[in-house]
Amino acid sequence: MGMFGKEKKACMQGPLLFGFHGGLQLQPNKRALQNSTDPITELEAPHELVIPLLDYNKNSIAPQVELNQHVNRGQLLAAGIIAPATGQVMAIEPRHIIHPETIKANAVVLEVDKASDNQSVHMANQANHDSTAWDTQLSAFLNMPDNVLQQSALYGLGGAGFPTASKLDAALGGIQTLIINAAECEPEIACDEALMQTEATHIARGIDALVQLTQCRHCLLAIEDSMPAAIDAMSAALKSINAQVKLTVIPTIYPTGAESSLIQTLTGRFIPHNEKPSDHGIVCFNVATAYALYQAIGGKALDSRVVSLGGSAMPNPLNVRVRFGSSVEAILLATGNASVINTARLRAGGPLSGFDLDTPQVPITAQTNALLAEPCITETPAQPCIRCGECSDVCPAKLLPQQLHWYAMSDDHEKCQQLNLDACIECGCCDLVCPASIKLTQSFRYAKSKAKHIAQHQQKTLDAEQRFALHEARVAKRKQEKAHAIEQRKQSLKARSKPQSDQIKAALERAKLSAKSKKPR
Amino acid sequence: MNIIVDKHATGVKARSTQTIMLLVLLALAPGILSYTVFISPLVIFNIIFAVCSAIALEWFAVHLRGDNGLNSIKDGSIALAAALLALCVPPALPFWQLFIGVLIMVMLGKQVFGGIGHNPFNPAMVGYAALLVSFPQSMTFWFTAAEWSAMGMQKPPLLSLLNAKLSLDIIASTPNIQWDGLTQATPLEHARSLRLQSLPQSSTELNQRAFGSGWIQTSLGFLLGGVFLLYKKVIRWHIPVSVIGSFALLSLLFSTNSLSLPWSLLTGAMMLGAFFIATDPVSAASSRRAQLVFGTGIGALTFVIREFGGYPEGFAFAVLLMNLSVPLIDHIDLLMSQRA
User: Fold this and answer.
1) Which of B115, B281, B334 sits opposite A419 (nearest CB)?
2) Looking at the structure, do residues B139 and B205 belong to the same domain, yes or no?
């Protein structure tokens, strides 16, 4: 409780920030914003959209549409997945998805009907401009929030892509602090900054809706000091609708945008990785999610996002709004960046949190915040660790990366757990400062996936053991039942045979008696 | 091959291992300079000899292991270790003995464990300790430029000293130099022998002697280099502060030595050790908290050995003993951070 007292003071006196352990000051280098006149360029839906049938946990889900079926924009394709455009289902087949490893997943392939899709865009824009309806729409949403959340398939647009509805469910009631995350500390990524510059009023309304829905005690909008235009736009927008939101300007230190680092910066609380912010009365939403909520309340489902095209090899860097399911290749072609497909190294996400792509034929999802083109490089080979400790100085999770690396490479999972491997947020700070060019983050990802694999294997073994035990029990039971049945049968036979012999005896008796009685006659 | 963290795109350029080692070597410069001026110019020859032989031996050892020896030399770590060893031994140490020290440093201190990053002990201190127990006479054989005149003797020319260093036995080979009056001349050793013989100790006399010996000036040179390393963030404050702090505290409370505290910090290997030797990251503890424990241990053990031990200077043994405790310190530190 004392913590909130402090926070209140912060609200009144101006920014009182707590900061977090480690982190790095990086050059923002936002080419997507610097090199183009329009903050965001709207892209038409490409000819083909590929929508992977995967849920938040990357488990595949069953499609609710059939081959050759005509679908409208916003129609459900599967549970929680909607069609980003009007068109026809051409195939339901495994396709490459956007993933660090080149893997395929079952996907709905949609051939976009451009004529009717353009019409849907036009209608959606009209609905958006009709601002008098907002108050009624908002009160309708506050009365029945689930309707809107289910229909519009809202996902977090930050990085984890958590379903917004479940996050709100967990948060409803006990929320003290609502945090809107507009920190974009990673170089090259400028999608949220561009969104705030162009859609400030709508974002402010989305935030206001979240404030009213969660009934939080206070709401903080955190923007980094490197985005003055976005700060001006948002503060004006918040003032104009008189929203109960405190705009907090935070220093640009990577990775402030990570949920745990941001919460620590704003509230001074360190939330362990195995606890949720909502356990502490805190919930975080990305600023783009607030905008998506605004649109959803207005009846427009979440089917597109802003993607920053950047990187030193990108000839025409800019921010584009693209439909989910558009392939990387189609986006590069449509923006005049086709040349990079064969000449540069393509990367999804930022230089630190992203990953390289092996093929440009992968579809954009809600989590894809940037596409970078970087020159092909040969990496400096790693040298032995000299245990200088720079990595632990910059680690925002307060880990000992050099020791973790040692145990990760020797597959010592017990020790990795002891050193709190699961708390690693894979921000990549340790890699940046390592004098020996060791690929620390890579080894942590490897160790994590290995641990997951082992856990799955153990679970399988456990399940099999359980199944076997149940099978044994069933067999034993059946055996027992059989034995019991035989025993019963025997008993009943005996019981039946007894009366029989009695009857025979009785009959014999009667015969004897009758014989005796006959004699005297 | 997938690149996980794209360093090049962030524009961050980390300081390489090589740069770190070169910065430390650079930071040694003021100390080496005052050593040359105030104690003996022979140290320059010792450094050159040790560095060259260490590089050759390192190349040879890595080559034997089947790796590229040049890569290993390039990181500069063995050159740094050799320079530190050369700064710790007496200037008049015969070259062949110094070579044995370098050999042990490279082979038993570093390469048997797998080269850079894998050695549990500070290689320079392994070489030093081996020399100290093998050649106790020549390893406690100090003289300084100032003492030559203090003893009213003519300073032998550098060339004849160098010539003597090339011989097997330095004293026997230079009958024209009166070595006897010069042996056991470090201020620490002097204070210790006075204390052991229960002779009256005049603190002003001891302090004057310490200053005259050139040790104070040399230590100040190393201190300057240490501050440079702190400023450049090559080292952090935790180890030097805890080493000097614990040693100073124990000296204040329990010392029977009449050498005043600043003087006892500035004579002997304390400054060189606290900033350049104990801070070797490979053989030190991992976390900053564990480093405080590690440094405190070195300072305390140095005091104990100086006060009660058989050697006038205990820094090398203190470092080696604490290197030995690093796995334990790290383990306890981990358990404590888990409980928190």
Assistant:
1) B334
2) no
Residue A167: give the domain boundaries.
2-309
Residue B163 reports pLDDT greater than 80: no
Q: Give the Cα separation of B51 and B81 in Å (integer).
A: 8
Chain center to CA of A348: 16
Question: Whole-prediction pTM value?
Answer: 0.80
Q: Is A303 on the interface with B (CB under 8 A)?
A: no
Q: Is B20 on the interface with A (CB under 8 A)?
A: yes
Instruction: Write out pLDDT tens, residues B6-50.
Output: 887 787 888 899 999 999 999 999 999 999 988 888 899 999 999
- A173-196 in b/e burial notation, b at 16+ Cβ within 10 A? eebbbbbbbbbbbbbbbbbbbbbb
B181 touches chain A (CB under 8 A): no
Q: Taking Cα atoms as reference points, which of B175, B168, B196, B166 lies closest to residue B184?
A: B196
CB contact under 8 A, A437 and B16: yes
Residue A168 in domain: yes
Assess A188–B contact: CB distance below 8 Å, yes or no: yes
Segment holding B259, helix H or strand E:
none
Q: Are residues B143 and B197 in the same domain?
A: no
Instruction: Residue B284: list chain A partners with CB under 8 A.
Output: 387
Residue A428 contacts B where some CB pair is shorter than 8 Å: yes
Q: Residues 6 or more apart from A296 whose CB is under 8 A from it? A: A148, A149, A151, A152, A154, A302
The ipTM, to two decimals, is: 0.84
The Cα–Cα gap between A188 and A194 comes to: 12
Q: Residue B14 and residue A434: Cβ atoms within 8 Å?
A: yes
Tell me which chain B residue has its CA closest to the CA of residue A383. Answer: B17
Query: Per the CB < 8 Å rule, is A345 touching B3?
Result: yes
Residue A481 pLDDT grade (very low, low, confident, very high; cuts 50, 70, 90): very high
A345-384 tens-digit pLDDT:
999 988 888 888 989 999 999 889 999 999 888 878 888 9
| Same domain, yes or no: B70 and B131 | yes
